[in-house]
Design brief:
The chain is mainly alpha-helical and 308 residues long. Among the domains are: 71 residues, no CATH class; 137 residues, no CATH class. The chain contains 14 helices and no strands. Helix 7 crosses helix 12 and helix 8 packs across helix 9. The termini are far apart.
């Protein structure tokens, strides 16, 4: 009887019961290219055709990494609006095309409404014609909206400063005129002024254009020559003057707002010591004078701020 066939042993495969596996030889690691290397780029550059070698961008590039960066940036810039630098030989057409890329669409500048400079809370009124003139000027100069905003704000700032200087100068002139007539009339100032106002009211009731002429300019209404003219009319006319009530709100002489403020300031400057003094330290005559001054100030304030 024959014996059963024995299985043929296999070659060891490693692992459990697999015998010993001979390790494989390690492979050398592959070197990663250094794209910032100038030598590598020089080799790339030398391989280019002569027409590409002549390109200044390629000549000035130092590495393949830098070349890739330039390509990415160039692609981004293709979708961005870019302006050509102005040239000395540009004509009107080139300049107009250049400015058209700066100006708002259809030259429609938005008028600024908020400002932060000193005096911005008391802005003068700007007419539509003046606004349009500024808009046309900005368009002619090729200003963008931001530049127009700065121009408009500076324009208003100069207007505020000019008005402030004008008001200050006007106040000084009125004060000087008042001091001159007070110096000339002396103690008769109040009486003469009342007579001049009476004549003025009577005459302007007959000739309304005269009121418009005098009260259109505070300097005219407070000029010593005008005051003396109407005072003289009161003296020579007497009862012949047309009957007219005195108008405490008149712009003539001390009755205008500028004039009332000047009169109050004048009282304070001339009689400041007695106004601020302690009545108990004054003589009876000085107390009487002080009270008359205070009454006069109170009357002026009543005219300046009449009750409604």
């Amino acid at each position: 009887m024959s014996e059963p066939n024995e299985p043929t042993p296999t070659e060891p495969t490693g692992g459990l019961g697999g015998g010993v596996v001979t390790p494989t030889e390690p492979t050398e690691p592959t070197n990663t290219p250094n794209y910032t290397d100038e030598t590598m780029y020089k080799g790339f550059y030398e391989s280019l055709p002569d027409e590409l070698k002549a390109n200044s961008t390629l000549q000035n590039t130092k590495s393949l990494h830098s070349l890739a960066d330039q390509l990415v940036n160039a692609q981004k810039a293709m979708g961005t609006k870019r302006l050509s630098a102005p040239q000395e030989d540009w004509g009107d057409d080139e300049w107009n095309n250049f400015y058209s890329q700066l100006r708002p669409e259809n030259d429609e500048y938005a008028i600024p409404e908020e400002f932060s400079f000193e005096g911005a809370d008391n802005l003068p009124e700007i007419s539509d014609e003046d606004n349009q003139e500024l808009v046309d000027f900005a368009a002619e100069m090729g200003l963008n909206q931001q530049q127009f905003d700065k121009l408009y704000e500076r324009y208003l700032q100069m207007a505020v400063q000019g008005k402030s200087m004008q008001d200050s100068s006007l106040k000084d002139v009125i004060t000087q005129n008042r001091q001159a007539i007070v110096g000339e009339w002396g103690d008769k100032y109040d009486t003469n002024l009342a007579q001049a106002n009476q004549a003025y009211e009577a005459m302007t009731a007959e000739i309304p254009e005269l009121r418009e002429l005098v009260e259109s300019d505070p300097v005219v209404a407070n000029h010593p020559a005008v005051l003396k003219l109407f005072h003289r009319l009161a003296e020579v006319s007497g009862d012949a003057l047309p009957v007219a009530g005195n108008n405490p709100a008149s712009g003539f002489a001390s009755e205008g707002v500028h004039n009332i403020k000047s009169a109050i300031q004048e009282l304070d400057e001339r009689h400041g010591n007695i106004i601020m003094s302690d009545p108990a330290s004054l003589s009876m005559a000085e107390r009487t004078k002080r009270q008359e001054i205070l009454d006069k100030r109170a009357k002026l304030y009543t005219q300046l701020y009449p009750s409604t």
